[in-house]
Request: fold
Amino acid sequence: MRLFNLFRLCFILLLCSSSQVFAQAAQTAQIPIRFVVTFPPGGAADQVARIIAQETSVILNTPILVENKAGASGMIGADFVARAKPDGKTFLIGGNGPTVLNQALFSKMPYDPEKSFTPVVGLAKSPLLMFVRKDLGVTNLKDFLELARKKQPPLSMASAGIGNITHITGEYAAALMGFKINHIPFSGSAPAVTAVMGNNVDLMFDPLPSSMQQARNGLMIPLALMDDQRFPPLAQVPTLKESNFANMEISAWFILLAPAQTPRNIVLEMNKAVNLALTRPELIARIQGIGEQPLGNMSPEQAGEFISAERQLWVPLIRQLGIKAE
Reply:
């Protein structure tokens, strides 16, 4: 009898323990995942994050919240994720600036862009569009270069800010194509694009999300796309490669990152879910509709290699050009 009671007590304790484990697991599963965006709501990073989060949330059966933590060239949000617990509940929508460009633009950063994060998966990229004001008098790259190379004073170039990808790309392209520019920085792409549309600035290199619709509506003259293939919604615009400027594929991109030391199984689970989401035709259409191209089917290793390649290109180039954000 005593032995029987002992077995019964052990069985009851096992059931209670199992129930607690299952309850804790269920509770953990319902803790929302956070996708941290380092820019304000409404921009390309924010839109990409929300589109992908919505579908990925369904696949994982777990809520995903998008949080905007903007400021300091993306470093506030990036530092927040770098310091987060590596438990699979906080991820960074990593982009050019906080992940690569800032490494050359700032002498000090609150985190190490090479060691503070674990690459998870590619999200999307947006090729930069080269365009000019309507009354500049050119409609193609060949005529533009003939004008730009002899223009004195140099043509004016708008950017979304000093050290922004729109600024660095313009300096890089001008050096490779052999013309001078007078850089005019704005506080964001929207006012910079508006300045070109208003015929107040000559030229700009800008990611498609903030310039594609304006180009389609004839509000500026698109000259070339900085990619290796044409973008379907702007199929009439040639690539720079078609104009004999190879190796100038430049895009604003987004890679999902986790805090360093995030367990491998968590990284792989999120990688699988996002890659599955990026195969859905409706999601692809929504991504392309805002001027982005999905970076689907990337492994964590490939995502890391992508960032490393960007770092090897841009960090020495920015230093060579002498561009500083401080």
Remarks:
- The two ends are 80 Å apart (CA to CA).
